[in-house]
Design goal:
By secondary structure, this protein is an alpha/beta fold. It is built from five helices and nine strands. The chain has a seven-stranded mixed β-sheet with strand order 3-4-5-6-7-8-9.
């Protein structure tokens, strides 16, 4: 029964760094015990990407560059082919000037700010502060900057520090929908 149900569910396309995507998806499906789920479930279809790779569907175009982090990571730009609206997403990364070109004129840049309102003096751990994110947003001329990945008690200070550089900065609320 389960395999018959699965035949009618479209695949779940998972894109990620070519170095780790298969291992991470295998560990995840083992952890959630996907074979025990009742009813149909989406079978993962993996799309390993190298930095600089592009991926397209009928609806979206995805462009990538590498992130600056101890483990392999990518920075993504998702562009809706119908509306041309775009979102750039950094994931974990230290300040990385190539993000400026990738994010150029995006409707939204989602950038990590692990160091809160501070600029890290050591980028070994591959994380940025909100001033770094704001500098990228300003140089890329994005419309809005959403900060993520910061301790809860530092979020307000992170937004305030970023707004000194790039005014249209916010911290998304849990469950918030951002319309472009």
């Amino acid at each position: 029964q389960r395999s018959r149900d699965r035949e009618h569910v479209p695949p779940l396309h998972i894109l990620g760094p070519e170095e780790d995507i298969e291992r991470i998806v295998n560990l995840t499906t083992q952890f959630i015990q996907i074979e025990k789920l009742k009813g149909g479930f989406a079978h993962p279809e993996l799309h390993p990407l190298a930095a600089g790779a592009e991926f397209e569907t009928a609806e979206f175009r995805i462009d990538t560059i590498r992130s600056i982090h101890p483990v392999p990571g990518l920075v993504y730009r998702f562009t809706d082919k119908e509306t041309s609206k775009s979102v750039a997403f950094t994931g974990d990364t230290a300040y990385h000037p190539p993000i400026i070109e990738l994010a150029r004129d995006s409707d939204l840049l989602i950038h990590e700010a692990s160091h809160g309102p501070n600029r890290p003096s050591d980028t070994t751990w591959g994380h940025a502060g909100s001033p770094d994110a704001a500098e990228i947003a300003k140089a890329a001329k994005v419309k809005r900057l959403a900060l993520i990945h910061c301790a809860e008690d530092g979020q307000e200070a992170a937004v305030d520090a970023a707004r000194e550089i790039f005014e249209n900065t916010f911290w998304p609320e849990d469950g918030e929908t951002v319309t472009l």
